[in-house]
Design goal:
heterodimer, A: 223 residues, mainly beta, outer membrane lipoprotein receptor (LolB), chain A, 13-stranded mixed sheet, 39% strand, B: 664 residues, alpha/beta, Alkaline Phosphatase, subunit A, 8-stranded mixed sheet, 19 helices, 18 strands, 26% helix, 9% strand, globular
């Protein structure tokens, strides 16, 4: 078991940090960009999204979805989906798992932030999550801490947190899917990427649903 | 030499050397290489063009203005009484031709039901502020340009009732004391840019509203449909009027009698198109009642039926079977207002009055009801989800099992003729369907409910709930929806329609359906939002002159939505026809503000496709087997050879192309 865990953690080591002049100052939350890559069973990667972080905010642009991006703010407890062409935004909820995974965390107790992000996404939860420290490893002067994330429903996921960055760099979901950060570039991110223009309006899917029920689109079953 | 003889001899095959347009190479009977059929929701002919004067020289139109029912300003005209509506004393059984002795005109013994706000949106702050951006979002899907059209933005943020739900719509001048007849939806507080109350529009209700009896027949109206029970049926079919206090089941009330005034700048985009191109004033919804059955007829020339999913007709669950007979102690409350009916069995509720009427007509149309088939007469979601997932328990999920009925798509496939159905928000609906499959709800819930639940969990694709499943006739079909290759090739989104136009890869045959926010349906949409959708497509075509030159765009509706209409109705079989709906024919060969009077319905669009691309009727029972009408000068709206349906070719003058902009 121990050997297996080591191999899992070692798998992170192919990640490359490209340090810039704005490298992380000790104790300062970092700003960085990276690619979120989905790994298949054979380890082959496929680009899933582009990530930009300016703690406490994260912006995620999904591959193949040019009409919008996700914006999370752990301090505000929000995760939004912004549709730029339509000038509107919505609560992201569970539109993507990334908004509850790739958030700034406390490397010593990341489950607190992951559970909060899951709550923001509307994932049902009845009790405390807890994180079991599996292993610590080192790479390029970065300490990577692997946690087993035990959710209140008993399901387990695994998260690898870069201690210096205070950010997960790899995730293995309960269904076995694995996502890693690649091409991490530590540098300041433009603040404009993390704000919603004031003329954008918020869409409530529940209200949309109620409106649609007044149309013929909604084919209500016979009583 | 007439056009048709010329075409039959040589056909039309265009120069195909210089573009991506594969459809150019396909031989057609006319110069038309592409047809685009755009389908709005729930507007009738008198409702939309009731006050309209044709622009073409010597052109005439049958509408409430030409009949003197109203004046040009929408006020009651000298023949206003021709439109008067009646109430009916309680009858022991369902009826479609009310006994004359049991009828009394509103006004003599009671006031006509008045227009009602029903479920129209009250204000942005109610459920509005959230859904206003939904409209914005949808239009932006249609037109994903970064610079949003300020005019459209304005349209999308206006029109709320500012009145309580389910109350008299006092924005309408004189509402509360309106006389017995049609009223104009125009005044200081209401226009075509306002949301208005909806009304029920279902099969048995629509037959009953039409009030058809051979005893009423005249030379000009040989089928005897009086169209004079519209508010009465709406105010009674769901009313426990003998209980204390009376329970009001719906608030359709008098909304059926509302109309727009095109001569006073209402529905101005549609009017401009009619002024420049051709309008049909004898085009009909093909099925009495609502959306699903009419779209099904548009795609198949037939009605869908309950089956075992393998093509064999079986009996649906009892809670799916209609019984329109009045409940004891009520004037006209339907016993079971359900969606399926076995019209081959005279003993079943509601069947005999319709079939007996058909048999009494001089031309004796066949009901076209196969033995032991329970036909879908009202809205029922297809047995497939938008992503192709097949509902495992259609009966429990209240979804019609996968359909074996042959579609126009099957016929086009067999001839390798390209086609596609472009449904607004389809891509989002696929994403929600995938969510529902993952969540397990697709296997247990009705697809409307499951997609609704998925939208709350996956707001990024929430607009998928606005995709109209029942509007896509191909979503019912095993041959299309049950085949991933077919589905990928032919079932697409509005954005794909615009992209195909821009890339000059438009299929030969295209069906375009906006989603539930832009379709123009009362209460949930507005007529000017459908106009905006149409304009988006036309603007795209305008930018491609060669493609425009060989394309006809038909703009029509699925049904009149329960709106009253004064036009003649030709019953063809048990299922319809129903009231008139507008048809605009936009091409270089159908110009001049003409008005076509030849009798037609949705199936005429199939007949046009079949003639132009040389296809046979879909099946031996589909309506596209009907002959073209032989119209007579003395009765210009009544075919001399009923039942008959136009193939629409007589709208065109293919010897004479006129280039002009669609709208600008």
């Amino acid at each position: 078991m121990r050997r297996n865990i080591s191999r899992r953690t070692t798998a992170v080591l192919h990640l490359a940090w490209l340090f810039s002049a704005a490298a992380v100052a000790q104790g300062q939350p970092p700003s960085f960009s990276a690619d979120i890559v989905s790994l298949d069973a054979g380890g082959a990667g496929q680009a899933a999204a582009k990530l930009q972080v300016a703690n406490p905010k994260a912006r995620i642009e999904m591959a193949g979805a040019a009409d919008g991006f996700f914006l999370s703010d752990t301090d505000a407890g929000t995760a939004l989906f912004v549709r730029t062409a339509q000038r509107l935004y919505l609560d992201a909820r569970q539109s993507t798992p990334f908004t509850r995974i790739f958030v700034p965390v406390d490397p010593r107790d990341p489950c607190r932030q992951w559970q909060a992000a899951a709550a923001t996404a509307g994932v049902p939860s009845t009790g405390e999550w807890h994180c079991e420290l599996i292993e610590r490893a080192s790479m390029n002067h970065h300490e990577i801490i692997e946690y087993r994330v035990v959710r209140s429903d008993g399901q387990s996921e695994y998260g690898w947190v870069d201690r210096t960055m205070g950010f997960p760099v790899k995730w293995q979901a309960a269904d076995g899917k694995v996502f890693v950060l690649e091409n991490i570039v530590l540098q300041a991110q433009p603040q404009s990427l993390f704000s919603i223009p004031p003329d954008y309006r918020k869409l409530d899917p529940q209200a949309l649903l109620e409106r649609i029920k007044h149309s013929d689109v909604w084919a209500e079953p016979s009583k | 030499m007439s056009f048709s003889l010329l075409a039959a001899t040589v056909g039309f095959a265009d120069d195909k050397t210089k573009d991506n347009d594969a459809a150019d190479a396909v031989k057609t009977e006319s110069p038309i290489k592409h047809v685009i059929i755009l389908i709005g929701e729930n507007r009738g002919t008198d409702h939309t063009f009731g006050v309209y004067k044709p622009k073409g020289k010597h052109e005439t139109i049958s509408n409430i203005l030409s009949k003197g029912i109203v004046n040009e300003d929408g006020t009651p005209g000298p023949n206003f009484s021709l439109a008067q509506q009646f109430m009916v004393k309680p009858q022991p059984q369902y009826y479609i031709g009310a006994p004359k002795a049991a009828k009394a005109a509103y006004g003599s013994t009671g006031q006509m039901p008045q227009p009602n706000t029903n479920g129209a949106p009250i204000a942005q702050g109610e459920s509005g502020a959230p859904f206003v951006p939904a409209f914005l979002a949808e239009l932006a899907v249609v037109d994903p340009s970064p610079d949003f059209n300020p005019l459209t933005d304005t349209i999308l943020t206006t029109g709320f009732t500012m009145l309580p739900a389910n109350t008299v719509d006092t924005r309408i001048p004189n509402a509360g004391v309106l006389p017995n007849g049609p009223f104009v939806l125009q005044g200081p507080n209401i226009s075509d840019d306002d949301y208005t109350g909806d009304m029920t529009h279902r099969f048995y209700q629509a037959w009953q509203q039409s009030d058809c009896s051979v005893a009423n027949a005249t030379k000009a109206n040989p089928t005897g449909c009086l169209n004079d029970l519209f508010p009465f049926v709406m105010s009674t079919y769901d009313l426990n009027d003998k209980s204390v206090p009376a329970v009001q089941g719906n608030f359709s009330e008098g909304n059926e009698m509302g109309f727009y005034d095109a001569e006073q700048e209402e529905a101005s985009t549609l009017k401009t198109l009619a002024d420049r191109f051709s309008l049909s004033d004898n085009f009909h919804q093909s099925f009495q009642g609502g959306t699903g059955a009419n779209h099904f007829m548009l795609g198949t020339g037939d009605a869908g039926f309950w089956s075992d999913g393998n093509g064999n007709a079986i009996t649906p669950p009892a809670n799916q079977i209609a019984n329109p007979n009045p409940a004891p102690g009520t004037t006209n409350k339907y016993t079971a207002d359900n969606n399926f009916t076995n019209c081959s069995d005279f003993t079943q509720p509601g069947i005999a009055p319709i079939v007996s009427y058909l048999e009494a007509l001089p031309y004796r149309p066949e009901p076209n009801c196969a033995t032991a088939h329970y036909y879908m007469v009202d809205n029922t979601n297809p047995g497939f989800y938008p992503n192709g997932f097949r509902a495992p328990s259609p009966a429990a999920q209240a979804m019609i099992p996968a359909s074996p009925v042959r579609t126009i798509g099957d016929a086009l496939n067999e001839k390798n003729i390209s086609w596609a159905y472009f449904g607004g928000s389809y891509n989002d609906a696929v994403a929600l369907s995938n969510d529902a499959v993952t969540a397990g709800t697709a296997a247990t819930l009705n697809s409307s409910t499951a997609l609704g639940e998925a939208a709350l969990a996956d707001p990024a694709h929430a607009l998928g709930v606005a995709y109209c499943q029942i509007c896509n006739p191909f979503q019912y079909a095993t041959s299309i929806m049950g085949n991933p290759t077919q589905r990928a090739a032919h079932i697409k989104d509005t954005v794909d329609l615009l992209a195909d136009i821009q890339a000059d890869t438009l299929p030969s045959v295209s069906f375009g359906k906006p989603d539930g926010l832009l379709d123009g349906h009362p209460s949930s949409s507005k007529i000017d939002l459908f106009e905006a959708y149409v304009q988006q497509v036309l603007d795209a075509l305008e930018a491609h002159p060669k493609l425009k030159a060989e394309t006809v765009v038909f703009v029509t509706w699925d049904e009149a939505g329960g709106y009253w209409d004064s036009g003649f109705i030709q019953p063809i079989d048990f299922f319809g026809d129903g009231p008139r709906i507008p048809l605009l024919t936009l091409s270089e060969y159908s110009t001049g503000g003409t008005v076509n009077h030849t009798y037609a319905d949705h199936v005429s669009l199939l007949k046009f496709i079949e003639r132009n691309w040389k296809l046979r009727p879909l099946t031996d029972r589909s309506r596209d087997n009907l002959p073209n009408p032989k119209m007579r000068e003395d009765q210009p709206y009544v075919p001399g050879n009923m039942p008959a349906l136009s193939d629409l070719f007589d709208i065109f003058d293919f010897s004479h192309a006129v280039k002009q902009p669609f709208l600008e």
